[in-house]
Amino acid sequence: MDNNGYKKLTRSTSDRRIAGVCGGLAEYLNIDPTVVRIIFLLALICGTLGFWAYIIVWICAPEDNLLNQ
Questions:
Q1: Domain spans of the chain?
Q2: First CA to last CA across the chain, in angstroms?
């Protein structure tokens, strides 16, 4: 949480497989990272929405260790 008490969406550096997007989203939503990974996989299989969402979050969300320095 930041100084205002708001959570920030960040990419995880401790729970990452590719870029930490699913781990960061899972931490932000307080759910299991496996659930987020399955949702992204289903979105990718059903179309390209999962791919583009992953890429956009990868580009826009900072890594969690960058905010703690």
A1: 1-69
A2: 14
